Structures are given as C-alpha cells and as structure tokens.
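User: Here's a structure from my thesis project, written as structure tokens. My advisor, Dr. K., wants to see whether a designed sequence matches the one we expressed. Can you design one independently, without my sequence as a hint?
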C-alpha cells in the first residue's frame, strides 16, 4: 500500500504533493473547509460548462436551421428556374407545332365600323362560317393526318395596345410554327361593296355585290379560304353542301387536281375518294381500280385506301386479290394506320373485314359473330344496318331459312330494295338473302323472281348502278335462268360479265352443269380454281358436278380440296357424305355428316342423309333421331317426300 501511495503522489505532480503536505500538518477543521471550498468551486465550474454547452448546442441548432433555410431557398429558386425553363420549352414546342388558323381583324370602311361592323366583327363572322363548314365536313380522315390541321382551333386575333403574353406567343408561333393567317378587307365599289380574303401568302380572292349581300359574300370568302387551306376537307364539304350531281362533279374535279398536282401527303386520300367517281359516275371499273391501287402505292399503311381496294377488287370479281387486301387492311389496323382514320371507322373496319374473310372460306358462323360485333358499334357509313342484311344472307347459306328471315325482319330498313346502291357498297360480300333462301331450297323460280325484283328497283335502274348490276345481279339472274330452263337467256346474260370474275366464272360452270355439259363445266371450274386457288367454292361446285356425272371418286377428291380450304364450310362435307353413301361406305359417311352438323345444325337435308347413312349402317335408333330432327327443319318438297318414304319403310 505504501508503494501505491508513493506512486500516486509521483503521478499527481508537485501541486498535489504540496496539497497533501499541507493537509498533513493542518487541523481537521481547516482541511474540511478547504475541501468544501474546492467542491463549491468545482460545482461552479461544472455549471458554467453546462451553460456553455447549452449555448453551444443552441448555436449549432440555429446554424443548422440557417443552412436548411438556405438550402430550401436555393431549391425553391432552382424549381422556379426549372419551371420557367419548362414553360418556355413547352411554349416553344407548342408554337413550333401550332398549325391553327388565325383570322386577323379585317380592314373595313369607317362608316361601316361606326355602325358596329368593325374589322373584329367581320373576322368573327368569317370565323363562324369556317367553324360551321368544318363541323359539316364528315370525313373518315383523322385530323392529325393533315399537313395543316386547324381542327383544334380557329381564333380571331384582336391586337392589344400593350405587349402581352399572348402577343409574345403569337410572335413565337409566327416564327417557329405553321399557323395559317387569314386577312382581308371590306371596301366600297361603284355598285356596292367587295370582300377580299387571303390565306397566308396566297393572293387574295375578291367577291363583290350589294351591301345587303354581305352575308353571302362572307360565305363565298369562307369557302374560298376553306378550299385554299384544306383542299381535301373542302372536297368532302362540297359533295354534301351542293345538290347532286353538281356537288359530286365539283368534288371529283377537286380530287383529281389534288391527286395529280397536290403534295404526296394528300395523294393517297385524294386517289382513294377519286376512285369512287370512276366507279359510280363514270362506270369505269378499271379506272377505279387504277386509282385505288395508286392510293395504296402512296400509303400502304392507310386503312381507308387498302380497304377500298379490297371492296373494288371484290366488285370486279377478283376474290383472291380482295382476300389479300382484306388481310392487309387488318394489318394496317394493328399498326399505326389505325390512327390515320377516325376511331369510329377503325372500330367498324375490323369486324367487317374479319367477316369477309370468314365468308370467303365458307365459315358463315364466324362471319355472323363479326356482324354481331358490328351491330354493337356506333354506325359508320350504314355498316350497322347492312350487318342485318349480311347476317340474313349468311344464315341462308347455313341452310337456316327461319333464322335468315328472323334476322332480316330485325332490321328497320327495306333491305332488299335499299341495299342495291348507297351504303350497300360497304358490304364486301353482297349476297341476296331471299334469293339464297329460295335457291337453297331448290325453288329457282322463286329465286329468279326475287333477283328480278332487285333488278327492277329504282336504284338498280340508275345509270350509276350499271357496274353493280353487271357484277352483283346479272350472274345470279343467269344462274336462276339456267335452272328454270332459260338457257339462252342465261348464256346471254352471263356472257356480258368478264371472264376474270370469280363468281361469274363459277356460274358459267354451274350453267354448263345444269345442261349436263360436263367438259364445259369442268373447264369453267378449272378456270375459277386458277383465279382463286385458296377459296373453296369452285372446288365444292366442281365436286357436285362430278357427283351428278357419276364420277364419285373425282367428286370426293374435289370435296376434300374444298374442305382443306374451307374447313368450316358444311356443304362439301355433306356432299362428301352423300358420295360415300353412293359408294356403299355409309360407315365413313357418318363422320362427314357429324362434321357438317357442327357448322350447319339446322340443315334439314344433312339430317335426312345422316339418318340414311345410319340406317344402312344398321343403327335404326339413331337413324330415327336424325329423321326426327330433319322433320323439324325446312326441307325441299322432294326431300320431304324422301323423308316420309324412309320413315315409313325402314323406321
């Protein structure tokens, strides 16, 4: 312990050593007093240190708050700066993309201005007329496709006495954008007044008349401006604003000039609509096809151009090309092309062309689904009403005459008489429901009466319907003529139709079949197959001809080809089954009838022949079931007699 004490003293230094020495010789009272004083001094020093520490901490807090406030102010300043930069950039971008129409105040005579007809008022009158004309222009074209589109806004510019933000933007838009400025003046002449209007840097156009005719002169000025600034829209406007045929003639003149002399951005639109002039006004289908193809060549991604080409190719009977163009139409709708037409048109085009493609494969059920979709959409060019007509025809082709009649009755239009022209062109596959119901039942006299009634409608007698009659009416009348024994009339009528028309060529083969001219029929069916090798109808009709001839092996081969190209087409399957029955292979026929039943369950003859195959296969119970189904379906007179005989004799 002594060693430890000595070591502590040495470590404490001289001061502590002196203290210890003094305490060692002092009294107990002095030592306690001294220690108490030292304790108080230490406490005061500690309290002072605590106060200094609190002050130091407070100073740090103030300093930190100052730094935070400084940072906040810097961030706020940065945000304000960035906002100003963004606003300026946005203004520059908007100005650079501003293609609106700005009407400057017109100059007017002082006396007119004194009466309240100031330059601002005249500009506002022009604005009203342009706005009305634009609203009356019903076009399938999307506004964004115009090089100069002011559908988003037309405004009158009224100058201010001082510089404003709007003035600054106007100067920026004039510098960077593509605004179209309309200016003009109203002045007095020796006989009245004159109104001059000019668009951009174009020369002014003047219209003169009496002062009381100012509204008329302003309308003429507005039409002049519309024609200069929006030539395609103006062509659509004149077709409806002016009576037929003058409005149509004027429209075709404008479109011709735009197609031949306009900018490339306008050519596909101009050619697309100009093609209708060749079709309906000039009755020149080759020219219409040429213009439609030109439209597609300028813009292969334009749905309106490609879809119209599909319609025109189908009218011409070029089914293979029409199918290819229908696929191309759907492809354009899957890409950027859908944005080039208005949404209502884009929505309607898809089910329309899906239905057409299904019909070209004999898949009438799939087509019915698409027409059902079309009926739920907003109408476009009469497509919704036409869907009833097309559905009625497809149900007839499914051998469901009751469903066909019900569908036709569900429409609010006299389809048989209104569909010939007008919106009827929108039906890519125009088929006559009543004619089809009668022909499917073997009532060719009734079918002929129906098609003659169609041909005698006022629309069908119009000169503009000549092409329509040639491709959509005459072939089916010729076929009915052949089946009622008017062979000379049939050949005379079908001879007026072109030989590169798929339907017309098929019907030539069917006319020869009705005459039992087997070589002639085979020739025409071979030609039709060559024209459209992927479409099943000519194969199916060729097989029916061979079966009538007695060449059952050849018939089944054609039915197999038809089934390969139209797997949901019931007719070749049913006839294939009949050919197998005739070859004493009813066991194989059962599968064909079952397949056909998946697509045409209301077909009376199908169930009749199915029952017959079951009967020859020894299954009388199931045969009875099929005969019962057949009895509830529509049957031709001969089929009803056959059913009665089969049930009376074998069941």
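Assistant: Designed independently from the structure alone:
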């Amino acid at each position: 312990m002594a060693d430890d004490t000595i070591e502590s003293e040495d470590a404490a230094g001289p001061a502590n050593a002196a203290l210890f020495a003094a305490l060692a010789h002092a009294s107990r009272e002095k030592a306690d007093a001294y220690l108490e004083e030292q304790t108080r001094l230490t406490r005061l020093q500690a309290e002072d240190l605590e106060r200094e520490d609190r002050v130091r901490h407070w100073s740090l807090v103030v300093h930190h708050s100052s730094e935070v406030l400084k940072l906040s102010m810097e961030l706020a300043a940065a945000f304000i700066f960035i906002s100003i930069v963004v606003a300026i950039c946005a203004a520059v971008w908007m100005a650079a993309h501003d293609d609106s129409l700005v009407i400057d105040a017109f100059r007017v005579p002082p006396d007119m201005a004194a009466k309240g007809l100031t330059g601002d008022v005249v500009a506002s009158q022009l604005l009203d007329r342009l706005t009305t004309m634009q609203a009356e222009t019903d076009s399938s074209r999307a506004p964004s496709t115009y090089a100069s589109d002011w559908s988003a806004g037309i405004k009158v510019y009224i100058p201010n006495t001082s510089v404003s933000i709007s003035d600054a933007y106007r100067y920026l838009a004039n510098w960077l954008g593509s605004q179209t400025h309309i200016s003009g003046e109203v002045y007095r002449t020796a006989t009245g007044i004159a109104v001059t209007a000019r668009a951009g840097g174009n020369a002014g156009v003047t219209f003169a008349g009496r002062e009381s005719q100012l509204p008329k002169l302003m309308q003429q000025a507005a039409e002049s401006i519309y024609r200069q600034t929006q030539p395609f829209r103006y062509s659509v406007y004149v077709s409806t604003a002016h009576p037929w045929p003058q409005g149509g003639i004027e429209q075709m003149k404008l479109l011709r000039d735009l197609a031949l002399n306009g900018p490339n951005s306008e050519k596909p639109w101009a050619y697309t609509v100009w093609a209708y002039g060749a079709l309906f006004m000039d009755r020149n289908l080759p020219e219409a096809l040429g213009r439609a193809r030109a439209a597609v060549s300028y813009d292969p991604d334009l749905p309106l151009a490609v879809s119209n080409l599909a319609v025109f190719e189908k009218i011409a009977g070029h089914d293979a090309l029409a199918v290819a163009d229908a696929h191309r139409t759907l492809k354009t709708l899957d890409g950027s092309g859908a944005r080039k037409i208005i949404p209502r048109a884009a929505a309607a085009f898809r089910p329309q062309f899906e239905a057409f493609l299904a019909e070209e494969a004999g898949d009438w059920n799939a087509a019915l689904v698409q027409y059902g979709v079309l009926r739920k959409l907003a109408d476009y060019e009469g497509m919704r009403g036409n869907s009833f007509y097309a559905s009625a025809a497809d149900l007839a082709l499914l051998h469901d005459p009751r469903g066909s009649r019900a569908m036709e009755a569900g429409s609010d239009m006299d389809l048989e008489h209104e569909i010939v022209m007008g919106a009827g062109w929108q039906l890519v596959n125009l088929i006559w429901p009543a004619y089809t119901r009668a022909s499917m039942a073997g009532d060719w006299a009734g079918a002929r009466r129906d098609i003659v009634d169609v041909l005698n409608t006022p629309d069908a007698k119009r000169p503009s319907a000549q092409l329509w009659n040639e491709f959509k009416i005459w072939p089916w009348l010729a076929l009915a003529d052949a089946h009622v024994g008017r062979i000379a009339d049939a050949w005379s009528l079908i001879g007026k139709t072109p030989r590169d028309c798929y339907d017309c060529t098929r019907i030539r083969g069917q006319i020869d079949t009705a005459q039992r001219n087997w070589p002639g029929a085979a020739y025409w069916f071979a030609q039709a197959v060559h024209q459209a090798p992927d479409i099943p109808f000519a194969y199916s009709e060729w097989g029916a001809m061979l079966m009538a001839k007695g060449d059952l092996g050849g018939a089944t081969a054609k039915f197999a080809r038809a089934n390969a190209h139209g797997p949901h087409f019931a007719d070749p399957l049913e006839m294939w089954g009949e050919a197998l029955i005739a070859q004493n292979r009813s066991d194989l026929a059962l599968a064909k009838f079952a397949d056909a039943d998946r697509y045409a369950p209301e077909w009376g003859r199908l169930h009749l022949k199915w029952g017959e195959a079951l009967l020859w296969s020894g299954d009388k119970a199931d045969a009875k079931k099929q005969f019962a189904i057949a009895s509830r379906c529509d049957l031709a007179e001969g089929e009803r007699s056959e059913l009665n005989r089969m049930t009376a004799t074998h069941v």
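When you compare it with your expressed construct, this may help: The two ends are 134 Å apart (CA to CA).
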